[in-house]
Amino acid sequence: MSLLTELKRRDVIRVASAYIVFCWLIVQVVETLFRVYGFSDQAIRNIVLLMALGFFPTLILSWIFEFTMDGIKLQSAIAAEGVPTKHASKAFDRVIILILVAALSYFLLDKIVFDPARDEEKLSAARQAAKVETLAVMAEQRAHELALSLPNSIAVMLFENLSPDPEDAYFADGIHESIVNELARINDINVIARTSMQRYRNLDLPIDKIAQELRVEKIMQGSVRYAGDRVRVSTQLIDPDNDLQIWAEQYDRDLDDIFAIQSEIAASIATELKAELLPTEQATIQEVPTVSATAYAAYLKAMSLVRKGFRVAARPEQRAQIQNHLDEALQLDPNFALAQAWKARIYVASRLYDPITELEWPDFKHATEQKILTLAGEALGRNPNSGMAHSVLADLYAHNWQGKEAEAAAIQALKLEPNNSEVLVRQASFATHRDQHKEAVSLMRHAVQLDPNSGRVLHELGYALHASKEFQQASEVLRRCLTLNPTEAICSVMLARSEFAQGNHDASLAALKLTESLLPDDAAPGIRGEIAWGYGLLGYPAEAARAYEQVRVAAQTRYVDPAVWAWASMGIGEYDVALKLLRQAADNTDLIQDPYPTHFIRENSWSDPRLETAAFIKVRERLRL
């Protein structure tokens, strides 16, 4: 008997054929299902390898064993017993035929229904559709961002100083601020304030990211080179959506032409933003503030110190330095109205914060206010469109409880500089003091759009929200203020009030302690008095007494007005004393140096239940602006 005949008799060839077809079918199924369920190609290869390794053992087993009608038996036993295998072979043939039919069916389905080329085409179409959908979502998102963006809006990046002398950096900063101020006087343009742009001086952020953060449509970059009597200003306007340059210009001129350069830049930006300039605005941006370029340089030196902060924490010596530069500018050009307005502004700060004694206060107040009125009046006489001068008068009137006069001056300043965040802050402050909370919040939201990173502006929005009883929103704004400006004590103390009003005493205490840690040694006593009030309400008498003692020590060398003493007295539980002090202030508002403590008490900003008694309500009403 030949080997081939024996292989056929033992069904080895049938088994081999069936095994191959069965394995092929299994591979096709596995290849399809494994990818659906995320198995790797290696898993498929492993199965193919196992089936290949099983081929020869299967043939050996089919040689040794035989399928019979009575089951699987050894070939030797079948030969000895004479068991017929014909019917078993036919049954096995039917199994093979079924496997072949299944394989053929799968083959036809794979080619006709599951055509790989068509599947790939469909997959490609699906991918393309997904891509289009993603682009549509991105386009919709950008459209939403643009809808949220301020119309006709621009952020002017801080100008790079290319002057030979690094000490001349003040000049580049001054030109930048002047251009921003010129743009702020155009009603149809929303320009981000310089204080918010400071954040990006040392941040390596792409243009589109900055534009998204500030919600502006355009970005302007520039550089300044100042040497001798020559100045070179290079500028470019950029579309942040595609980082393409829209407009660029370089001005290389004599220093005396610096104002013409600033006016031309402002006019060019207005044209590119398609902003409508009123005739008065056109005339305003073409105004020349001084005929002396040297006087202007002295003025810019003063402004460089102003930008470092001349208000609450600045020492009188720093204010004196600012005044010296302004005096130099006015000596060179006595008709320099902007320098006069700024001298008046510095005197307002001196009236609020200079550490004079109690005996000196009446004469100091009178003399300082006369200087403010004279300087602001002269500035307006030379330039009736000086928004700064009107703003200064608004502050002075408010500090003297002349509410109607303050509001009129503030409205005039806002009319002249509608997009100046500082002007908006003052107008909102007056609105809050007169319980016009909806207007105050609206003004401050616009101010934050124009100056989103300013600690002062965010504080004032938090203040307006707090005064309107929107305590949770106030807390959110004030936390953002501290995130962007971690050393702003005015934000942390306002946060302490808002958290206390919500019943979050632990958070209030933490904010109050943060405030203490941020205060300089020479901080005005007013905020020390408020800290005493806060600690008293939170149930920390020892801390309240310590803060009260700090006010008492300060009073030995400087004037502390009745409202500050009332604050501190409430902190140590002496509400009768506080009531007498507030009546004293209401009888004679000339005794009040810094009006903010008085306003905060009138508004009961610490939500003190004892201020809701009839006696306190009556005196608080008398202190309304």
Number of helices: 30
Kindly identify the CATH topology of the domain at 153-288.
Rossmann fold
- Which homologous superfamily in CATH is the superfamily of the domain at 153-288? ABC-type transport auxiliary lipoprotein component
Please provide the count of β strands: 8
CATH architecture of the domain at 153-288: 3-Layer(aba) Sandwich
What percentage of residues falls in helices of 4 or more residues? 55-70%
Separation of the first and last Cα atoms? 124 Å
Unreliable stretches, pLDDT < 50, 5 or more residues?
A: 134-147
Strand percent estimate? 5-15%
Shape type: elongated
Q: Radius of gyration over alpha carbons?
A: 41 Å
Please identify the structural class as seen in this structure: alpha/beta
According to CATH, what is the class of the domain at 153-288?
A: Alpha Beta
Mean pLDDT: 84
Would you kindly provide a brief summary of this structure?
The protein is of the alpha/beta class. It has helices at 3-9, 12-36, 41-53, 55-64, 75-81, 86-112, 116-148, 169-184, 194-197, 207-214, 258-272, 279-285, 293-306, 316-332, 337-353, 361-382, 387-399, 403-416, 421-433, 437-450, 455-467, 471-484, 489-501, 505-518, 525-538, 541-554, 562-571, 575-587, 595-602, 614-622, and strands at 65-68, 71-74, 153-156, 160-161, 190-191, 218-227, 230-239, 244-254.
Features:
single chain, 625 residues, alpha/beta, Rossmann fold, 6-stranded mixed sheet, two-stranded antiparallel ribbon, 30 helices, 8 strands, 8% strand, elongated
